[in-house]
Amino acid sequence: MAATNLVHLPTSEEIDVAKQSSRTLAKYASADRVQMSISGSNGESDEFVLPGHVMQILLDVLSEMSKGNAISLIPHNQEVSTQEAANILNVSRPFLVKLLENGDIPFHKVGTHRRVRLQDILSYKTETDEKRSEALDKLAELSQSEGMGY
After folding, report:
1. Which of 3, 47, 95, 143 has the fewest Cβ atoms surrounding its Cβ within 10 A?
2. How many Å apart are CA 11 and CA 16, to the nearest integer?
3. Cα-flanking dihedrals φ and ψ of residue 70, to 5°?
4. Domain holding 131: CATH number?
5. 100 neighbors 49 (Cβ within 8 angstroms)
6. Does 1 fall in a domain?
């Protein structure tokens, strides 16, 4: 199944349904596998088994939806273009290309085009966010110790 770029913000009705469903499913979160029955508005119904880790993913999706957040499911090895990667990092594409060429983020070429694993972009983003947070903490600590009132 291919990943799509569809973004859907849940409606207030979907938020309520997600809250109710997550409460019901939470009772089964620690199970290794869960037998489920499903029936749709079209009259179809089935029974099936979900592995425990899939149940946890489903609970995570419902939890985020209950907060009004949109959800995307992305394959672990998804690759993105340099423009998509730049958008994720909120930087310009030329700046991203410099990061790639400096070896800060791994990439490979498909013909003349650079491709970056989404996981590598997200790891880089996490690292830079942590460094930024540490630097801000140090600045706040320094401001406090100098009596600057921040």
Report:
1. 47
2. 9
3. -80, 150
4. 1.10.1660
5. no
6. no
